[in-house]
Each structure stands twice: as structure tokens, then as C-alpha cells.
């Protein structure tokens, strides 16, 4: 019979722009899950509805060449990209986005 080892890790708090997330990787048991896997848990937060505003870059972080996948158990955020494009994600839904090259060209 093979021995099975189970490890539980609660993650660490990290700020991503104005959002607080629980970052699961890297940790002391697993330094990474590949070059582009970031399993973060976003804590509940409240935002004013219908105020996407003009992107200022204050929340900018690199996503070049990767895809993001978001599962949403509650709420309906309206993410805004660097070009001002928006899209609503409804509660119970998911969103997949492929990041561009960050040059400002389409």
C-alpha cells in the first residue's frame, strides 16, 4: 500500500490593486504551479455600481500572453481593461480572458 500525504495550506493575504486576495501559490510546500498559474481567492468587496471610469493604470499588473479564468459565486462585477472595454460577469458564472501584448495596439 502506498503512503498518502495530505497537506493543508491556508495561503497568505496579498493586495492586488485595491483588492485583498488569499494567494495560495507560491508557498513553502509548493514554490509554483507553472509559469502562469495563480490560484487566488478574492475576498468579498463592495464597489459602486456603474462607475467604471477611465482606466488610470493604478490597478495595472502584467498579464501579457496568459489567460485568466474567474469563477464568481456571488456579485456581478464589470471588469474594465486598459482600452476601456467592459463586460459583466454574473453570479454563478465564469469569465475567461486572454491577455494582449500590452503595447496599446490591437
UniProtKB/TrEMBL annotation:
UniProt-listed Pfam families: Pirin
Disordered, as annotated region: 32-61, 76-106
Domain Pirin N-terminal: residue ranges: 34-101
Classification via Gene3D superfamilies: Jelly Rolls (2.60.120.10)
Family, similarity comment: Belongs to the pirin family.
Protein name per its UniProtKB record: Pirin N-terminal domain-containing protein
Gene source species: uncultured Cytophagales bacterium
Amino acid at each position: 500500500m502506498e503512503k498518502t500525504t495530505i497537506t493543508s495550506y491556508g495561503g497568505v493575504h496579498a493586495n492586488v490593486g485595491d483588492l485583498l486576495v488569499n494567494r495560495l501559490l507560491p508557498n513553502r510546500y509548493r514554490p509554483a504551479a507553472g509559469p502562469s498559474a495563480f490560484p487566488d481567492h478574492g475576498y468579498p468587496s463592495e464597489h459602486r455600481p456603474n462607475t467604471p471610469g477611465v482606466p488610470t493604470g493604478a490597478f495595472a499588473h502584467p498579464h501579457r500572453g496568459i489567460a485568466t479564468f474567474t469563477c464568481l459565486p456571488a456579485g456581478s462585477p464589470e471588469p474594465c481593461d486598459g482600452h476601456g472595454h467592459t463586460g459583466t460577469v454574473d453570479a454563478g458564472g465564469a469569465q475567461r480572458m486572454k491577455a494582449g501584448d500590452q503595447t496599446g495596439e490591437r
